[in-house]
Structures are given as C-alpha cells and as structure tokens.
Design brief:
- The protein is of the alpha+beta class and 401 residues long.
- It has 13 helices and ten strands.
- The chain has helices at residues 2-14, 20-59, 78-87, 122-125, 150-156, 211-217, 238-249, 258-261, 263-301, 303-311, 316-352, 369-390, 395-399, and strands spanning 65-69, 91-106, 109-118, 134-135, 145-149, 167-172, 186-197, 206-210, 227-232, 253-257.
- It has a six-stranded mixed beta barrel with strand order 2-3-8-5-7-6.
- α2 packs antiparallel against α12.
C-alpha cells in the first residue's frame, strides 16, 4: 500500500493534471522552492567566502600570542621576556611593539592616527609587508621611515618614496610644568612615507614605524616596549604555550592568544552569520506556503478520484500519504535543482568574478559541504512539516459532494 501511495504521488507530479491551473500551481511551488534554496545556498557560500577573507585580513593584525603588561602600558623588564622566548623551542619569532596615538601633519592638513612602532623582526610575526599597495616597507636603516594606511594617505595626500616631502609627527610630552612654547607640549619628528598598505576596521588610521621612532617620541629608554608579539611553530598549540609562559613570567603580564584578541570581532561575525541563516530560513518558510497551496489545490482537483479510491478499499492513511509524498517530491525537486543552480552560480563567480563588491573586489565565494547540509536541512524541515500538516484530510470531506 505504501508503494501505491508513492506511485500515485509520482503520477500526480509528472503526469498531466486535471487542469492547467493545478499544473501551473504545482510547478510554481517547485520553482519557488528551487529559487529559495538556490538563493540561500549562494548567500551562505558568499558569507563563507567573506568569513575566510576576514580571517586572512585579521590573521596579519594579531600574532599567535601577545604579551602585555597587566597594569601599566610599558612592559616590566622586556629583556627578561626576550631571553625566555629565545630559549623556548615552540617560539619561531617574536617582536617588540609600542602603540600610541599621534598627530600627523602635512601641508597644513592633520589627522590623529595610531603609531605602531615595531622592530625589524615584526614582519616575521605579522607579514604586513606582503600587503603593500604601493611603495615599499620601511628598510629600518633610518628612524624616520613610516608606512601609512591607505585611507589616511588619501586624506592627507603625503607623497610616497625617498626624496619626497616630509610630514611631521607630534607626540604630547608626558609630565607637568609651565608651558612657554610649542616645544614644551610636543615631541616632534619629521618623517617620510616609504609605502602604503590597505586598512580595514581594525587597522584604520595606522602608521607603521621603527620602534626607535616611537621610543624617541615618547621619551622612552632604548629597550622599552608596550607589547611583545609571538609567532609559534605550531599555532594550534597556542593555549598550551600560553599557560607555560604565564607560569614562567608571573602575574605582572597578560598573555592573549589570537582568538582572544579577536573575540569581539568573531562574536560579531558569528552573530551576522546566525542572522543570515535565520533570514533565509524565513524566506524558505514563506516559500512553503506555495507548497501548501499546491497540496490543497491538488486535493480539490482529485477529490472524485480520492472518493473512488476510498470506495475501492484504499485506507485513508495511504490517501493522506499520497498527498504527503507529492509534497515531498516537490520539496526534493526544489532542493536538488536549487543546490545545482546555486552551485553553478558559485562556480561562475569563482571563475569569472562577475559580481563585484567594489570596483576591483569580486564577491568572495566558498563552496563547503557544510553549506549543502545546512540549506538542505532547513528546506527539508519546513517542506516536510508543511506537506505533513496539509496532507491531513478527513474521510467526511472526501465523501461529501
């Protein structure tokens, strides 16, 4: 009997219906399901691509481990930390950092920016030198070479390259006292821009400069640092190495992993991902009303046939299964065809970059097995539920004229 119900359902779907309206509504429901599934698959694939893009961008902003002072900005005894890290076989590279707000001025135009003073080993930890828009990364031969973030460079219009005009950095002097002239307020340094790098939400208005320049502007001793960033040979072991270093360094220092440094960022990304899933789950849910309409119209159109089947002894349960299987077939057709269409669109984007997020940036796309399961599961959940609910006709309804 189960095979009979499925056979009748399959005939209802692929054979000529009793009226053109029923045929149109049935295939409209299938097409709507296909469109919703394809749309959700494309969007979640684009979001997966954006997630990877953001992960790559953030990866160059934070090291595997970051050591900072628990109370003050300045690290106590950075040489002690350096010696400890040199002896640790799990550490591949490390670099000292000083980061502070600074005022940069060029040709009567100025901006408040973030000065990140780094030593020559910084690119071994965070390879920011691989993302230079134009120009070059500072050579560290001179203290006044700087690398400028792109949006800051656009606003100030500072020429790039050796021999270009100088800009001026102003750093407020610490301490108190009587102010008689400008030199009592600021430490100043002429700098020139060697190159420009792309910024993002976490690296906006940044200036990369030699550590010596930051120390000079802040009147700090030569070995001073605010942070020490660490690259590990095995980044997956970051938590274990963090615990080991915390025991050896003591309570005066705070050590954070890359994941902890980016916790707020990834919380935001995961929230956005959840909202995307919920919105498109709602789209698929609304689409299933077409499926409900198709099942109801099919019941009305096949009422006389249903009455004959009941009279011939077909159990009501099997008749209900017939309509349920019809809905299931529509849902399965919509899921399979929708995933095929979505996959083809994603492959087209991967190969051509036809759809652009900006002038030169195509929307990133990543096709994953997880996305297939998520989209199929959502469509099946709503499709099977609606098919089950609207297939529940009663015997009295069938036998009435």
């Amino acid at each position: 009997m189960g095979n009979t119900a499925f056979y009748i359902a399959r005939r209802y779907l692929i054979a000529k219906k009793g009226s053109t309206a029923v045929t149109f509504i049935t295939w409209l429901a299938a097409f709507a399901m296909m469109t919703a599934v394809a749309s959700m698959f494309i969007i979640v694939s684009v979001f997966s691509g954006l997630e990877d893009l953001n992960r790559d961008m953030v990866a160059n902003l934070h090291a595997d481990l970051t050591v900072s002072a628990k109370v003050d900005k300045k690290l106590k005894n950075p040489e002690k930390i350096s010696n400890l890290l040199k002896k640790n076989t799990a550490v591949e590279h490390f670099s000292k950092i000083i980061e502070e707000k600074v005022y940069i001025n060029y040709s009567d135009m100025g901006e408040i920016a973030y000065l990140r003073g780094v030593d020559s080993a910084y690119t071994s930890v965070n390879p920011i030198n691989k993302n230079i828009f134009y120009g070059t990364y500072p050579s560290f031969k001179y203290m006044n070479e700087i690398l400028l973030e792109n949006s800051l460079d656009n606003r100030l219009g500072i020429p790039v390259g050796e021999g270009a005009d100088f800009a001026m950095l102003y750093m407020p002097k610490p301490g108190t006292g009587i102010i008689n002239k400008e030199e009592d307020i600021f430490n100043k340094k002429e700098v020139y821009v060697t190159g420009v790098f792309p910024g993002n939400d976490q690296m906006n208005n940044f200036i990369i400069a030699p550590l010596e320049l930051a120390q000079n502007l802040l009147n700090l001793p030569k070995n001073s640092a605010y942070q020490i960033v660490i690259k590990l040979k095995n980044p997956d072991a970051a938590d274990d190495i963090k615990d080991e270093l915390s025991k050896n360094l003591g309570s005066d220092y705070v050590i954070k992993t890359k994941k902890e440094e980016n916790s707020a960022f990834w919380k935001m990304i995961n929230t956005e991902k959840l909202m995307i899933y919920l919105i498109f789950a709602l789209v698929i849910f609304i689409t299933t009303f077409n499926l409900a309409g198709a099942i109801i119209i099919l019941q009305l159109d096949k009422k006389e046939q249903a009455k004959s089947l009941i009279s011939l002894g077909l159990p009501l349960k099997n008749l209900r299964n017939t309509y349920f299987y019809t809905g299931v077939l529509i849902v399965i057709f919509g899921i399979i065809s929708g995933l095929i269409v979505g996959t083809l669109m994603c492959i087209l984007q991967l190969n051509t970059g036809f759809f652009k997020a900006g002038a030169d940036l195509p929307f990133p796309v990543k096709i994953t097995l997880q996305n297939y399961f998520i989209v199929a599961a959502v469509a099946l959940l709503f499709g099977l539920s609606v098919s089950w609910i609207f297939s529940k006709i009663n015997k009295e309804y069938i036998l009435t004229k």
